[in-house]
Write a structure and sequence with these properties.
The protein has about 400 residues and is α+β, with helices and mostly antiparallel strands. It contains nine helices and 18 strands. The strands form four sheets. Strands 4-3-2-1-5-6 form a six-stranded mixed β-sheet, with helices on both faces. Strands 7, 8, 9, 10 and 18 form a five-stranded mixed β-sheet that branches.
Length: about 400
């Protein structure tokens, strides 16, 4: 098998990402990192391979590739096992530093133990947070591919009403949407952070199923079709008077956008339309307010105040189970940093990409509200998933 091990855009893009990673390493007092996780490997190499990436403050990146993969990249070195890495670094005059980072959040305990043994004279520290911070602010190339994702996801969403047939279950409806997504080039795999975060291609939440809590840390729950994956569509027949919320994946090129729209079946109570309008009002407010340097927690507080002023606080971000965030970073993984929650004292930075999803769950009706993916700019938020936000009938 041949793999180029080069980012598709240019060497300068790789250099930019390496510079960003080194800045994050310095902030976390890391002198080197050994990268294994798929998300971070893709960030540096433009693809996933069996092996490891070495990056220090002065050397690398070096791609240690396990055969049968073959590449002619000058950055690659062939190995059979990771225990060969220290000797190969020494052969190139690279000193093993005193503090080496491993991705604690992404590796099994046995992997951490094994890789720690490669550097017996070094302090082993966590590199996970440094890499998340590095990836939170996107490069111009990353913004370009995420805009492409957003356009493709919005195009699929415009076809969703054609997927509906009377008498369908929510699961059947989701499968038809998935079919359109895959035909339009969706890769079919939403990469998420966290060992216990699992989802298929997204969620269709119809009626009262939206009020079912899930063990996963998503904004909306759903019982799921089976206890082995308790989130999303449950196989309920969709009937008149319910809201149908569609929150499906937008991953077409290794990056992802996140987007939610709502449809109805033969109309909804006035409260549902009022809550949906409040969601749109929250988005319009945050689109103007959110700029580089704004405290992230203030986005949540403003959204919550608008929901309270509208008399909708008991339905805000859930009913049986209310989550304490209204959005999250998005990119290579669906749930990147920052988490937009009240206690987040961090600051927005230019070219962060965030999904904001102020939603409401109404008993007996279902979930309403809108989610868009945005780029943080000096002039406010740029919506890269633009599509009509009103509730329309299926």
């Amino acid at each position: 098998m041949y793999f180029p091990l080069l980012l598709p855009e240019s060497e300068s893009e790789l250099n930019l990402r390496v510079a960003k990673a080194r800045k994050a390493m310095e902030a976390h007092k890391l002198e080197a990192m050994l990268i294994v996780s798929s998300a971070n490997m893709f960030y540096f190499a433009g693809g996933i391979f069996n092996g490891y990436i070495w990056l220090s403050l002065t050397d690398g990146p070096i791609f240690f590739v396990v055969p049968p993969l073959k590449t002619d990249s000058p950055l690659s070195r062939s190995i059979r096992k990771p225990e060969q890495i220290p000797a190969l670094l020494a052969d190139e005059g690279i000193r093993i530093p005193k503090r080496v980072g491993l991705e604690f959040d992404d590796l099994l305990y046995t992997e951490v133990k094994r890789l720690s043994g490669l550097f017996p004279d070094s302090e082993i520290a966590d590199a996970s947070v440094a890499m998340r911070e590095c990836r939170a602010v996107k490069t111009p190339y990353e913004l370009k591919v995420m805009r492409e994702d957003g356009r493709k996801q919005a195009a699929v969403y415009s076809r969703i009403p054609h997927c509906y047939q009377e008498g369908m279950t929510d699961l059947e409806f989701q499968i038809e949407i998935e079919h359109v997504l895959r035909r339009e080039g969706c890769l079919g795999f939403p990469r998420v952070a966290g060992r216990r975060m699992e989802i298929n291609l997204g969620s269709v939440l119809a009626g009262e199923n939206a009020d079912e809590p899930s063990p996963y840390d998503f904004s909306m729950g759903g019982a799921g079709a089976d206890p082995s994956l308790p989130v999303g569509a449950s196989g309920t027949i969709m009937h008149p008077g319910i809201a149908v919320m569609v929150d499906m994946n937008g991953g077409f090129n290794g990056y992802q956008t996140d987007m939610t729209r709502v449809w109805s079946i033969e109309g909804l109570p006035k409260l549902a339309y009022d809550a949906h309008r409040c969601s749109c009002d929250i988005l319009r407010d945050l689109e103007k307010f959110a700029r580089p340097g704004v405290e992230i927690g203030e986005l949540y507080r403003r959204a919550r105040r608008l929901a309270e002023d509208a008399g909708l606080s008991e339905y805000f971000m859930g009913h049986n189970h209310q989550v304490k965030f209204i959005g999250h970073g998005v990119g290579i993984q669906l749930n990147e940093i920052p988490v937009i929650m009240e206690r987040n004292r961090g600051l927005l930075a230019e070219n962060m990409t965030i999904a904001i999803e102020p939603k409401f769950v109404l008993p007996g009706v279902g979930a309403v509200g809108v989610e868009n993916t945005y780029i943080v700019t000096p002039d406010g938020l740029e919506n890269i998933t633009p599509l009509d936000e009103d509730i329309h009938e299926l």
